[in-house]
Amino acid sequence: MLEDFLRELFEINKIKVTDVQFNEMAEDIQGYFDMINEMESYQHAGPSPVQEENKQLKKELEKEKNKQVCPNCQGTGRNIINGPYHSAESFCFKCSGSGKIDP
Ligand SMILES: [Zn+2]
């Protein structure tokens, strides 16, 4: 089938090839098709790295959604310590500055 297609293609374009050249090209193209088929079956065989990455991101997002606002800093991620002369600001020790904590 591939060889018929090739012969037709050569005839349409008026390309003259010897039988040896023709067979070599047919073999090359067949090998190319085989390679593509192999790659496709490989891709369908299991989850691709991209799909795995998406799963991981979804998990992270879900985790982020379930987090609660830090009661210690009300989600600001900072603590303001009021001293007698000046006030100092520091990262919240409870949520380490993220403003959210795991439930
Ligand atoms: Zn906090």
Describe what you observe in this structure.
- Helix content is 54%, strand content 14%.
- The protein contains three helices and four strands.
- The strands form two sheets. Strands 1-4 form a two-stranded antiparallel sheet.
- A hairpin with a 4-residue loop joins strand 2 (78-82) and strand 3 (87-91).
- Helix 1 crosses helix 2.
- Zinc ion is lined by residues 70, 72-73, 77, 92, 94-95, 99.
Tell me roughly what share of residues is in helical segments: 40-55%
Order of helices and strands: HHHEEEE
Total of helices: 3
**Structure class:** alpha+beta
Strand tally is: 4
Structure at a glance:
The chain is of the alpha+beta class and 103 residues long. Helices cover 54% and strands 14% of the residues.
